[in-house]
Design a protein that fits this description.
Helices cover 45% and strands 18% of the residues.
Length: 331
């Protein structure tokens, strides 16, 4: 067979082509990071306005927008235990202009239902914003003021007590499934698409209990429109030091804290991801933003994207185990 050049030239050229292509794309990726953003940023939040996630996203967005010279537009997309928003984000280009706010529901969803995403494979962890305990509150007239009161009532009338959450498959939902498994009780789940209507129904007595973040629970507790029962973390929260943990109330080993963070679509260029991470981390560490997040019961975590990725993988395994043991369903 006749060759068009000396032996090995075609083979060598073929090997060098990917290297040349990669070298050409590296300056482009760095340029994209330097020029970012070139248009408004779409910040998808999987819950209705007014809830903990929505408030945290707005705190970050409003603080960062002036330095970007572009608006950071909050796009509330509740539904499907956050899968609707997650799958929507997955269909966007990996150019850094779409951010997805994620909570523990992001990693619980695949264990509860068939979803169109893989939390590890399909997204690039950007930043771990916070960690906060779930708070259990009750209608003021509900005849229980602690976990053991609820256990006694629930054992006397299985399924009679109702609890509301911001949706099936959320951390709030599965945290109560874990409580039921550990105490042998049966409550009835009433899922909502967001916390606002759930809070209204709790205050009116349509539901007995509500599980949410301290940021959403404490205002109505302070107004006397609800009463605090417990927090689900390993220790009490600084924003409500008088509210005991579930473990303190006779359920040793119980711990259910929620995480909050931001992810980008997988395939986002690394220089761009690092640029956005640095921007958010810098603004989150300013006293104004850090203290605002702390007031709402969320401790800023930060760390590298790799730290957040490791946490996501650990949470996937943890909550899959809870779902298996509790028999939780996306009702």
């Amino acid at each position: 067979m006749k060759r068009n050049g000396p032996p090995g030239i075609l083979h060598t050229a073929a090997m060098l082509l990917p290297l040349a292509t990669g070298a050409a794309t590296m300056p482009a990726a760095h340029a994209a990071a330097t020029d970012f953003p070139t248009r408004p940023v779409r910040f998808i939040v999987p819950f209705t306005p007014g809830g903990a996630s929505d408030i945290q996203a707005r705190i970050i967005g409003q603080a960062l927008a002036p330095s970007y010279g572009q608006n950071i537009l909050i796009d509330n997309r509740p539904g499907g235990g956050t899968s609707l928003a997650t799958e929507l984000a997955l269909r966007t280009p990996p150019d850094g202009h779409t951010w997805l706010f994620v909570t523990t529901a992001f990693v619980i969803g695949p264990a509860l239902r068939k979803v169109g995403y893989d939390p590890v494979r399909d997204f690039a962890p950007l930043i771990w914003l916070g960690a906060s305990p779930n708070m259990l509150i009750a209608n003021p007239s509900f005849p229980a003021s602690g976990i053991q009161d609820i256990v006694r009532l629930a054992k006397a009338k299985p399924g009679f007590i109702t609890y509301a959450t911001a949706g099936a498959g959320t951390a709030s939902h599965v945290s109560i499934e874990m409580l039921q498994t550990m105490t042998g009780i049966k409550l009835t789940h009433v899922p909502y698409k967001g916390i606002s209507q759930a809070m209204i129904d709790l205050m009116s007595g349509q539901v007995n209990l509500l599980v949410t973040a301290p940021i959403a629970a404490l205002p109505v507790v302070k107004q006397g429109k609800a009463k605090a029962i417990s927090v689900g973390g390993a220790k009490r929260t600084a924003v409500a030091p008088d509210v005991p943990t579930v473990a303190e109330q006779g359920v040793p080993g119980y711990e259910a804290s929620a995480f909050q963070g931001i992810v980008l679509v997988a395939g986002t260029p690394r220089p761009l991801l690092e640029r956005i991470h640095r921007d958010i981390d810098t603004i989150a560490r300013t006293p104004a933003v850090r203290d605002r997040l702390a007031e709402d019961g969320s401790d800023y975590v930060g760390g590298s994207p790799e730290v957040f990725a490791k946490h996501i993988r650990a949470e996937v395994a943890k909550w899959a185990k809870v779902v298996r043991e509790s028999g939780a369903r996306a009702d």
